[in-house]
Design goal:
The chain is of the alpha/beta class. The chain has two domains: 3-158, Glucose-6-phosphate isomerase like protein, domain 1 (Rossmann fold, 3-Layer(aba) Sandwich), CATH 3.40.50.10490; 168-274, Rossmann fold, CATH 3.40.50.10490. 39% of the residues lie in helices and 15% in strands. The chain contains ten helices and nine strands. The strands form two sheets. It has a five-stranded parallel β-sheet, sandwiched between helices. Strands 7-6-8-9 form a four-stranded parallel β-sheet, with helices on both faces. α3 (43-57) runs antiparallel to α8. It is globular.
């Protein structure tokens, strides 16, 4: 069994532990009314996107998300919130050390002794969610679960749904699937991007991801038999019938969207197995990108 299998299965317990931590973090996390920029690279950027959507929609304050390599250091924010599992990613370190001293910095990391932790004013350590696999699963979702709890979300349903997701049958057959497009709305756009990335990383599989309402503006052209369209979260009116008309498989569940992301992680691992690939060590990838 690959390391990632156990890491995926452990997510309900990790989220439960994160929910217990949320209240104790106090000012280490963004406060209501602060102008916040969330950042990260790859999976961490997608979690930043999801958090930004949740925080702003919930009325907690202006919240933007940027890939660390494109961070607009000239903009005025009260706080920068950085996601980095390893705490060594070069672009994230550049953001943390490059913002003005007046901007409070918080880093969410699996390694409290990392360079990123040393560079930030506040550290949210999640070592219990660290991973041996190169591919991120539980660290990313645990970080987002913690932040959802900090925003006031009761995670009871999400955790229960995740316990279902780690055992439920996959809604599509990896042996017959040739392509999948993931869609989301609001905060789940970030989850859709992350679902697509997992399949590309772990299985070298052709995936795309879009805001759901943009899907009919071009991407639907590739939909056909043996391909799937998977919506995480809210399903826009008419999308299911539009997909059905193409012959593609429409996928959606009633699970909490973060729990549904767990299902997509399992799909990525199943696709890798079908293709005789090692999902723990995808080609050309390392645990952290450290640039010279």
């Amino acid at each position: 069994m690959a390391h990632v299998d156990g890491e995926i299965a452990s997510q309900p317990g990790c989220w439960r532990r994160a929910a217990e931590l949320a209240d104790a973090l106090g000012p280490a996390l963004p406060q209501r009314g602060e102008r916040v920029a969330a950042t990260g690279c790859g999976t961490s950027w997608f979690m930043a996107m999801a958090y930004a959507g949740l925080r702003e929609h919930g009325g907690h304050g202006t919240t933007d998300a940027f890939p660390a390599s494109e961070f607009p250091a000239h903009r005025g924010y009260d706080r920068v919130l950085a996601f980095t599992r390893s705490g060594t990613t070069t672009e994230v370190l550049d953001v943390l050390t490059g913002v003005p001293p007046s901007v409070r910095t918080t880093v969410v990391t699996a390694d409290p002794g990392s360079p990123a932790a040393a560079s930030a004013e506040d550290v949210v350590p999640l070592p219990f969610a660290d991973e041996r696999s190169v591919v991120q699963t539980r660290f990313a979702t645990t970080a987002l679960a913690l932040l959802r709890a900090h925003l006031g979300t009761d995670l009871t349903t999400a955790i229960a749904d995740a316990e279902v997701a780690v055992h439920a049958p996959l809604p599509v057959d990896p042996a017959t699937l040739t392509q999948v497009t993931f869609l989301g709305r609001g905060w789940t756009v970030g989850l859709a991007y992350e679902a697509a990335l997992k399949c590309r990383e772990a299985a070298q599989f052709w995936t795309e991801a879009y805001p759901a309402m943009d899907y009919r503006h071009g991407p639907i052209a590739i939909a056909e038999h043996s391909r799937a369209v998977w919506v995480l979260g809210e399903v826009p009116h008419g999308i299911e019938s539009d997909v059905a008309a193409t012959g593609a498989t429409f996928v959606h569940s009633r699970l909490d969207p973060l729990a549904e992301l767990v299902l997509t992680q399992r799909l990525a691992v199943a696709l890798a197995a079908h293709r005789h690939l090692d999902p723990d060590s995808p080609r050309h990838l390392t645990r952290s990108v450290v640039l010279t």
